[in-house]
Fold UDP-glucuronic acid decarboxylase 1.
Amino acid sequence: QSSPKPPPSPSPLRNSKFFQSNMRILISGGAGFIGSHLVDKLMENEKNEVIVADNYFTGSKDNLKKWIGHPRFELIRHDVTEPLLIEVDQIYHLACPASPIFYKYNPVKTIKTNVIGTLNMLGLAKRVGARILLTSTSEVYGDPLIHPQPESYWGNVNPIGVRSCYDEGKRVAETLMFDYHRQHGIGQFYFPRFIEILSRLLFLTLFSVEIRIARIFNTYGPRMNIDDGRVVSNFIAQALRGEALTVQKPGTQTRSFCYVSDMVEGLMRLMEGDETGPINIGNPGEFTMVELAETVKELINPSIKIKMVENTPDDPRQRKPDITKAKEVLGWEPKVKLREGLPLMEEDFRQRLGVPKK
Ligand code: NAD
Ligand code: UDP
Ligand code: UDP
């Protein structure tokens, strides 16, 4: 192994294209599903030093085992509801359970994670002049009355339901992001572009909070928790274990599934680009849950049964991202189709469940 390089000293100007050099990047929630794939991608760039802060509620060290001990990588057991004093250039703020089973398990904690956790990450971003990206969610649209959902849609969310800790938590997190940006930022709304560039050069960036907001739609891929209760992981695990696929009623509800490598690419483009967002990042390919079950059955285990089971309250009936904005401002669109992504996830689940392919 090569000897460790001296750590770069953080500076807000390093986010600017003129001054880009080594980057120290914090990923809160980096031990989770999406976060660990993001770590893999960011570590490919030798100029990046990556720090993960995670409380291991739904994530695990296992997801990061190949990086533990690497000179450019650091893992901190930390709960984002507590303050964090470190020096970084960029923050990918992912910390928050994403599966309904886990975010409903302790709803008050979920709200604290979204609100106090995001406040702390913003306080950190403000103090060190780091750019911060929030992974918000399509759940901010609730049970949408507009289809597909553009970023301009304000949503249809139950404020007092069992999903509200997550949906409303993320909505407040988005509000906090914009309030920090407007209150502590140079603010694209108030200043013409040339004054912004001039003020950057005059070090006024020191007082600004640069934000990015991604609205992530359902994402799947290797390393999802096997028993985390989300539909793709449930169906694949059930198919491999020889259990019936549990379609929650009515089964006509739709989701649009994005493969994790596409998601990571979208998040990194958003972080590096000039657009604050919010921007939808997801795959517009839309499927009913019955169609998803039939696809999993056909690809993994044609002898398996599909059974209808009771649903949970407030389940959104349809969800499909309008990704016009992502295409235009990030030059991004997903590449991996559901039928290509499912076998990649199947391979990972086979290994972890010890079910070899016959
Ligand atoms: P995940 O549950 O696998 O990862 C979340 C990570 O955050 C875990 O490692 C967990 O231990 C950590 N965490 C939770 N609470 C924490 C706290 N208080 N302090 C520190 N760490 C904490 O979920 P994921 O699918 O990787 O989702 C990552 C992010 O993307 C989340 O913010 C989620 O809301 C968002 N998102 C995901 C999806 C999806 O389909 N996967 C969809 C929309 C939004
Ligand atoms: N914070 C943090 N790390 C820092 C700076 C701040 O965790 O490097 C936390 C801080 O504890 C506070 C929150 O971020 O709870 C918001 O900080 P800010 O400075 O914006 O607000 P204030 O401390 O003035 O309430
Ligand atoms: N679902 C299902 N069977 C399962 C788990 C979930 O039919 O075993 C359905 C659920 O009712 C919802 C959709 O799959 O309509 C997506 O649920 P998930 O929990 O994966 O994510 P959500 O988009 O609701 O956050």
About this structure: The longest strand covers residues 48-54.
